[in-house]
Amino acid sequence: MEGETVAKAAASSSSSPSRYESQKRRDWNTVLQYLKNHKPPLNLSRCSGAHVIEFLKYLDQFGKTKVHVPACPFFGEPNPPAQCTCPLRQAWGSLDALIGRLRAAFEEIGGGLPESNPFAAKAVRIYLKEVRETQAKARGIPYDKKKRKRPLLAKATPNIDDGEGSGGSGGAALVVASTMV
């Protein structure tokens, strides 16, 4: 009985696409519309990393993130005390997420070899890195690369033996704990 309700809930949630899938579809349709309106119109098969960068720059006009120019008196200040006329741009995080969704959408439609994916082009990665660095400098907040924590092998392995030889109380505690579950 309980399993049936879980199955029904799973089935009903799978009938409508997830928020991510819906956003990916909207983003994909936006790119296709951009390519269609491009002068001259472009087919997806002729699209390159340069076209993707052009698309990202086009999206800047709809941005909501103020990016101070170097000549601005508030350049490098995280919390500027007054308004300025610096342009609004797309935030780096939004562009990065957008490219991730478009890269996945391209692969799902069978756009060809991964090397032919214009959203995964090296030029696009470099452009995104430059946007991130520029926006970080403009806000005065560095994007520090997070260091991955590597587990130590000696500490990652649990030691069942408590030092009292084989068959010590460490093994007994394990049996008690497993019977309580």
TrEMBL record:
Pfam families for the chain: ALOG_dom
Biased composition (Low complexity): 7-18
GO cellular component: nucleus
Record-given protein name: ALOG domain-containing protein
Disordered: region residues: 1-24
Signal sequence, renumbered to the chain: none
Superkingdom of this protein's organism: Eukaryota
UniProt KW keywords: Developmental protein, DNA-binding, Nucleus, Transcription, Transcription regulation
Family: Belongs to the plant homeotic and developmental regulators ALOG protein family.
Main location: nucleus
Localisation per UniProt entry: Nucleus
Residue span(s) of domain ALOG: 19-147
Gene Ontology molecular function terms on file: DNA binding
